[in-house]
Amino acid sequence: MKKLLLLGGSAQQVVAIETAKRLGCYTVLCDYLPDNPGQYAADKFYLVSTTDKDAVLEVAKKENVDGVLAYASDPAAPTAAYVAEKLGLPGSPYRSVDILCNKDKFRAFLAENGFCTPKAKGYDDLAEAENDLNNGMFRFPVIVKPVDSSGSKGVGRIDDVSEINEKITYAMSFSRGHKIIVEEFVEKFGYQIAGDGLSIDGKLVFRCFANDHFDPKCENPFVPVSASFPYNMPDDVQTKIHNEIQRLLTLLDMGTTTYNFDMRIDKDYNVYLMEVAPRDGGNYIPDIIKYCTGVDLVECSVKAAMGMSLSDVKMQPYDTFYAYYAVHSYQSGVLKSIDIAEDAKKKIVEDHIIVKPGDKITTFTGANTTLGILLMKFDSLAEMLDMIDDSEKWISVKVD
Fold it and tell me: What is the pTM of this model?
């Protein structure tokens, strides 16, 4: 039986373990959390950090695995590529995956290769960052982020010099490698673009774009609260975005890999590749894409890691309207209730709320503070965008 090493066993990653087993793989799991749910789904479990490349490599050697997968995990993706490259397993080049997973390296690569990208600079010294911001190196507003975090954790916007110290210190607190990036803010036209895709031998054979939605009332307004499918721009705009992604994948010599996208266009339809992460999206985005197109990107990610054929995967048009919605709170405290209007309940196709009344919850600052995910189906694009953009009309989180 072929063996697959999976990196990460959170509740949203269990689906990859179950999919691998369905495809006939023996599953080995690494996770640094002793209470992760994935260990109960996997055939074998190692209490090993997914960011410790050499420790994971030793597990892979010991188990003589045939593939390694970091499903829906930015921090673990470089580890998976490192191990795969060391052992000659299927995957994309470690150097390329490392560029995609580190925001400062990614921005530099984009600039060097003529992509539209905001002026940016990485810092491991807060004093240097503060000095540059105070002395006019950047035009305000700017965005500051940890270079190596995911789920929008630690992201902040600085509009004037009075906010510099607080925001850069906050961002640095979320960086495992003690490094942040400062970049000038890109004004978007329409919705920010989300979605996932798949390349086979470096060719982007499948992608499914979505509208990213944010809640300005949140403490961290840069964390998406929803992605709604399909993206509401014409085909020629989507083709232009597709071609820019393909140019990036070609330059990086990417292999057979799944991706999660975050992108913007400006009023002149210039494409800004904000993030092209070499892994599946979180928040059940692959599930939504499967509802829309029938393409199972979880299965694709497992097959890619194992070197299995994906020759049957191709672009699939669709005329349905689906979205995920991240249930979130504006305040911390004890959850009293999550109230959903009856008409909205009829739109829910899957309920993945993970809290219950009486649980302690925190204000929404990143993907790790989501109270759960709702997968929803709508009758039209207009209905979907209206409900997602004005969710207070149909859902309320009450806290004591």
Answer: 0.93
